[in-house]
């Protein structure tokens, strides 16, 4: 009588069965990760993942995201206007990204004005950004600093001093018998700077990017995508072999 093929090589079957189970467990685990991340990413917008930032130290270290080391800050009353890593912050909250160097900030006419190398930002006293205006650099030149005289904003440049109009739309050359008192930057309290560092660092990475990298296998190693591809191939082979074995069993 002809032997069942499953009984022809018991030693081979004994060695391969644990390996087959291990591969199956790994493939199922990776398949679960792929399925869950795909499901979450499909709803990323409604979940607000692009605006939800990572605070976990381990994850930030995996992406080699380090806290900023430099800043330029001005105090206005009890508030701090700070520039770091190319962004402008009102206390601990980001107000604008991709700014040039911060030259000064001051309270003026129930508003807070911050001036960078190329722009003027207007805030409420509560830190809400009202407006942003571009400075006419071709007229006033390179900004060095700002001052407040009475209720007027003065901008000092390499071409002299310019007084801003009431609505900050125009700047006219002005001279003083005595130079105005230029606003100088300050050193942030250590606790304030540490909190700001954490916020700046965290805003460099959102959860949508993390999930995309997990889904593609890029998070843990450069070999991650190859592992995911290999798992997909193995899972396909397992499915094919499972069908093949089932058909052979039915035949016998």
Structure description:
- The chain is of the alpha+beta class and 252 residues long.
- It has a domain at 72-202.
- The protein is 39% helix and 26% strand.
- A hairpin with a 5-residue loop joins strand 7 and strand 8 (129-134).
- It is rod-shaped.
- The protein starts with 9 loop residues before the first helix and ends with a helix.
- The mean pLDDT is 82.
Topology at a glance:
Blueprint: H1 10-42, H2 44-47, H3 57-62, E1 72-76, E2 79-84, E3 87-90, E4 93-96, E5 102-108, E6 111-116, E7 119-123, E8 129-134, H4 137-140, E9 143-149, E10 152-157, E11 160-164, E12 171-174, H5 190-202, H6 207-216, H7 224-251
Antiparallel strand pairs: 1-2, 2-3, 3-4, 5-6, 6-7, 7-8, 9-10, 10-11, 11-12
Helix pairs in contact: 1-6, 1-7
Summarize the structure.
This protein is of the alpha+beta class and 252 residues long. It is 39% helix and 26% strand.
List descriptors.
4-stranded antiparallel beta sheet; 252 residues; alpha+beta
Give the averaged pLDDT, no decimals: 82
Oligomer state equals single chain
Coarse morphology = rod-shaped
Strand order of the largest sheet: 1-2-3-4
> How would you spell out the order of helices and strands?
HHHEEEEEEEEHEEEEHHH
Q: Helix amount, in percent?
A: 25-40%
- Rg to the nearest angstrom? 31 Å
Count of extended strands: 12
Termini gap: 13 Å
β-strand percent reads: 25-35%
For the largest beta-sheet, the strand count, sense and barrel status come to: 4 strands, antiparallel
* Count of individual helical segments: 7
| Poorly predicted parts | none
Structural class: alpha+beta
Organism: Pleionea mediterranea
Protein name: PepSY-associated transmembrane protein
Pfam families: PepSY_TM
Keywords: Membrane, Transmembrane, Transmembrane helix
